[in-house]
């Protein structure tokens, strides 16, 4: 049974930074594509960033240059470094691990507000 646990969310002022972590159980992590998604109130869940098993990355346009996704396979963990945050980044952030199946974490709240 694969489980994902996100952490690192919180309240931050505009222009601030947060680093989210997604820790996974199971031995297939290193072979998986892992992505971060977010869902703001009243909006659909959207893809934020993806990292493949080969460390190739993808970012949605609104976070390019501000967010960095990375992974540490030795720790079964994927990170999302978020810099220069703004109010539009406020959302619940979820990580997803994709192998033959998709696994989701429970989410972590990020609130950007002064």
SSE layout and pairing:
Elements: E1 4-7, E2 10-12, E3 18-24, E4 33-39, E5 46-51, E6 57-59, E7 67-72, E8 77-82, E9 91-98, E10 102-104, E11 108-112
Parallel strand pairs: 2-11
Antiparallel strand pairs: 1-3, 3-8, 4-5, 4-9, 5-6, 7-8, 9-10, 9-11
Q: Please, could you describe this protein's structure?
A:
- The protein has 114 residues and is mainly beta.
- 0% of the residues lie in helices and 51% in strands.
- The chain has no helices and 11 strands.
- It has strands at 4-7, 10-12, 18-24, 33-39, 46-51, 57-59, 67-72, 77-82, 91-98, 102-104, 108-112.
- The strands form 2 sheets. Strands 2, 4, 5, 6, 9, 10 and 11 form a 7-stranded mixed sheet that branches. It has a 4-stranded antiparallel sheet with strand order 1-3-8-7, with no helix packed on it.
- Strand 4 and strand 5 form a beta hairpin.
- The chain is globular, with a radius of gyration of 13 Å.
- The protein starts with a strand and ends with a strand.
- The mean pLDDT is 96.
């Amino acid at each position: 049974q694969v489980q994902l646990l996100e952490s690192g969310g919180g309240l931050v002022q505009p222009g601030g930074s947060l680093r989210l972590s997604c820790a996974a159980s199971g031995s297939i992590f290193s072979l998986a594509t892992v992505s971060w998604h977010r869902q703001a109130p009243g909006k659909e869940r959207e893809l934020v960033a993806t990292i493949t098993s080969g460390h190739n990355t993808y970012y949605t346009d609104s976070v390019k240059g501000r967010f960095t996704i990375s992974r540490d396979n030795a720790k079964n963990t994927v990170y999302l470094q978020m810099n220069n945050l703004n109010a539009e980044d406020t959302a619940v952030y979820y990580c997803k691990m994709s192998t033959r199946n998709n696994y989701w974490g429970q989410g972590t709240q990020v609130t950007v507000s002064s």
